[in-house]
């Protein structure tokens, strides 16, 4: 079931991100969706070697060609950006959008970019765990932004449901920041051509390089050319270019597949832990899980030394929800101890999952 609203979240809500939960806190970090083991050795070496290139102005062209080859696209269909955030900013300022729509709950940065560009954004709300098939997107929408898999729900939208949103005169933007954490990248549009559809990717999460700011977008040549024309010069750094070349190498592809399998196992272990503690959650395919331990659980976990992502800043969710990052089983042990000790008064008793949503259904997504 979905609804759409003209009124939106506050700026403070839109600009709250998981890193604010842990920065300088010393807490166990289950809030930030960045691979906890950091970048692999070969990527570190590439980043160190890129220091030799900082005396020259950066050229994004070679990285864009490497990404095009990686995804089976043409170079003119790829635009390298300083993280996915720059891509969202460029898209927000591409046209004088008449009716931009963001499908929530999802990562709030695209919504924030549209507001900062002066647009009035309409919000389409999905129930946690629902896919786009139940979304009532206004026909007059000329821009629709969604995540796949969606952050924070971990829901994977079928490719056909994404394509069904495309209309003449409408641009559909799919944030696939976490798609590389899914083995085989099911339901991705990044390697497929579809006019009116743009995919945004980030190298931050699986490769653990948020400080590098490496992202890109892929779309039809006309749209990408228009975005390229408004991209400021030299925003894609030498370090970001080195990251692209490293992760699209044969060694990088092997490590990406290994990390995807690893993250999936951690996610399964996290869902098993939540199930054993009687904490309701939304079945996920992403390297995080949206859980509902109840109002006050977020603060109680912090008091016990554990940081999880508060979710009342995501449109459509309230203070009873938290997002938990997938981590190795041993790292999750303290979380299990605290959740098991929560009283029914401090955390609502476990409820049965909604009809048709068996928590174990997404165990191997």
TrEMBL record:
Keyword check for Transferase, yes or no. Answer: yes
Question: Which parts of the sequence are annotated with region: Disordered?
Answer: 344-365
**Residue ranges constituting the Aminotransferase class I/classII large domain according to the UniProt record:** 27-326
Q: What span is annotated as the signal peptide, if there is one? A: none
Any Pfam family from its record, for instance, is Aminotran_1_2
Give the source's domain of life in one word: Bacteria
* Co-factor(s): pyridoxal 5'-phosphate
One example of the protein's molecular function in GO is: transaminase activity
Q: What keywords would UniProt list here?
A: Aminotransferase, Pyridoxal phosphate, Transferase
The record ties this protein, via InterPro entries, to: Aminotransferase_I/II_large (IPR004839), PyrdxlP-dep_Trfase (IPR015424), PyrdxlP-dep_Trfase_major (IPR015421), PyrdxlP-dep_Trfase_small (IPR015422)
- PANTHER family given in the database record: HISTIDINOL-PHOSPHATE AMINOTRANSFERASE-RELATED (PTHR42885), THREONINE-PHOSPHATE DECARBOXYLASE (PTHR42885:SF1)
What protein am I looking at? Histidinol-phosphate/aromatic aminotransferase/cobyric acid decarboxylase-like protein
**Source species, please?**
Nocardioides marinus
